């Protein structure tokens, strides 16, 4: 049992803010470019001679350049900067791969440059807001795959247990009929092909996972167990108890409001025991990390 008087070690998480800075700089640069092109085509509306009889400066070619620059270069880079800033802090972990982050950044900038070259030259599909030719479209898809892979890998390596269990449960319900015998009545088109019993189990598993995760959140570092002084924290116990009681009341009495049906005591016990595994998993991870820190200190 840990000593309450023992000093706690601070766990430092280093975020990769360099990629955020790069996307912010790109946002500002492309924002200036896109808005400057917008000013030029706005002036051409009352002074058509501003195209200087050059096809690549004509209104018809600069307008798609303006819209693509503002939407995909300016707003796109801004959204990516926000994603790379928020996700690591939400998960309290750095991005999974800096190499993928850099591939995403430079790939997106090259796509924008390719668009900035091809659109004024008239190399387009002539379709509104999808003017870019197929090689650039393939590059866009590839960059989005890189971005998605990096995001999902970051999520799954930090919240893997919870996410995997919920996905496996949903997959088993839809493909193998898990818990179909709880209540075989259809839950309606919005939940098809699940039955009322399956939606009830899935909903309850999700909520009880959160109840156990409340205990996990009592310890944000590996130095202390989430169970430490749990029984002394009356406010926490009251909140967790009210959450559990509320879920029992919803499942037992709400019926069509939440598309649920009452569960048997046996199902409640099975769900409570199985969802508590998220707490066990987190405690094992904390124990392993404590051991790793202890070994590192001894090695020094």
Question: How many distinct beta strands?
Answer: 0
Fraction of residues in helix:
55-70%
Number of domains: 2
Shape label: elongated
What fraction of the residues are assigned to beta strands by DSSP?
under 5%
Element order, helices and strands?
Answer: HHHHHHHHH
Low-confidence stretches: 295-300
Question: Overall pLDDT, averaged?
Answer: 83
- How many helical elements? 9
* Main sheet record: none
Structural class designation: mainly alpha
Could you tell me the radius of gyration in angstroms? 27 Å
Distance between the termini: 25 Å
Q: Can you walk me through this structure?
A:
The chain has 300 residues and is mainly alpha-helical. It has 2 domains: 17-157; 160-299, no CATH class. Helices cover 66% and strands 0% of the residues. It is built from 9 helices and no strands. Helix 1 (17-44) runs parallel beside helix 3 (98-118), helix 3 (98-118) runs antiparallel to helix 4 and helix 6 (196-216) packs antiparallel against helix 7 (234-253). It is elongated, with a radius of gyration of 27 Å. 22% of the residues are buried.
Give the structure's gist in a few sentences.
The protein is built from nine helices and no strands.
Pick out its properties:
9 helices, 66% helix, 300 residues, mainly alpha, 2 domains, disordered C terminus
Question: Would you spell out the secondary-structure blueprint of this structure?
Answer:
Blueprint: H1 17-44, H2 59-91, H3 98-118, H4 134-158, H5 160-176, H6 196-216, H7 234-253, H8 265-275, H9 277-299
Helix pairs in contact: 1-2, 1-3, 2-3, 3-4, 4-5, 5-6, 6-7, 6-8, 6-9
């Amino acid at each position: 049992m840990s000593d309450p008087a023992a000093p706690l070690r601070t766990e430092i998480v280093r975020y990769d803010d360099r990629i955020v800075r790069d996307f912010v700089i790109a946002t500002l640069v492309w924002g200036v470019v896109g808005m400057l092109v917008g000013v030029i085509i706005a002036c051409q509306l009352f002074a058509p001679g501003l195209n200087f009889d050059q096809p690549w400066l004509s209104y018809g070619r600069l307008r798609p350049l303006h819209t693509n620059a503002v939407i995909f270069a300016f707003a796109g880079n801004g959204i990516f900067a926000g994603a790379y800033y928020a996700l690591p802090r939400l998960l309290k972990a750095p991005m999974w791969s800096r190499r993928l982050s850099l591939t995403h950044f430079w790939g997106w900038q090259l796509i924008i440059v390719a668009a900035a070259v091809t659109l004024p030259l008239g190399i387009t599909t002539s379709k509104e807001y999808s003017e870019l030719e197929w090689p650039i479209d393939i590059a866009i898809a590839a960059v989005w795959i890189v971005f998605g892979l990096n995001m999902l890998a970051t999520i799954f390596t930090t919240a893997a247990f919870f996410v995997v269990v919920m996905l496996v449960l949903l997959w088993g319900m839809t493909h193998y009929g898990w818990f179909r015998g709880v209540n075989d009545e259809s839950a309606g088109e919005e939940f098809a092909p699940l039955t009322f019993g399956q939606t009830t189990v899935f909903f309850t598993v999700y909520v009880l996972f959160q109840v156990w995760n409340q205990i996990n959140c009592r310890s944000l570092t590996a130095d202390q167990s989430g169970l430490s002084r749990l029984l002394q924290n009356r406010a926490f116990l009251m909140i967790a108890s009210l959450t559990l009681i509320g879920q029992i009341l919803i499942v037992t009495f709400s019926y069509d409001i939440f598309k649920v049906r009452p569960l048997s005591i046996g199902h409640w016990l099975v769900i409570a025991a199985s969802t508590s595994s998220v707490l066990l998993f987190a405690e094992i991870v904390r124990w392993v990390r404590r051991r790793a820190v202890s070994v590192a200190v001894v090695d020094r």
